[in-house]
Amino acid sequence: MQADADLDATNDLGLRVINPAAHIRRAAAVEPHQRFLRRPYQYHDAVGKGSQTGLIFIALSTDPVRQFVPVQQRLDEADLLNIWTQTVGSAVFAILPGVHAGDYLGSQFIGA
To answer: Looking at residue 29, what DSSP letter applies?
Structure first.
């Protein structure tokens, strides 16, 4: 497991080591309910004489509005990573829980 970054670290002059607009700071959960699982997947495909290179970012959360949206709002306000990146799309998918023998997919939502 990877250790969390020390967002409060300062240098010998008392200045923050991690810039206030750094992606790692802006994307960090500021409330416990904003934590979610994040996974990046890099890709590189040769296309003719050029190539397509990028990153597919996957965020797994139980409540995107409470977990993911506040983080994205902070990133929208200021994010130094945007100097080098360009978002080309996004989507939200619901993934239903698994089922037990004799049950059916989504049964726990019937009558909710």
So the answer is: -
Span 25-38, pLDDT tens digits: 999 999 999 999 99
Residue 101, amino acid: A
* Burial (CB count within 10 angstroms: exposed 0-12, middle 13-18, buried 19+), residue 23: middle
3-state helix, strand, coil in the chain (%, to 5): 25, 20, 55
Q: What is the pTM of this model?
A: 0.73
d(CA 17, CA 93): 36
Q: Which of 34, 54, 35, 32 is CA-nearest to residue 44?
A: 54
Beta pairing partners, 73 = none
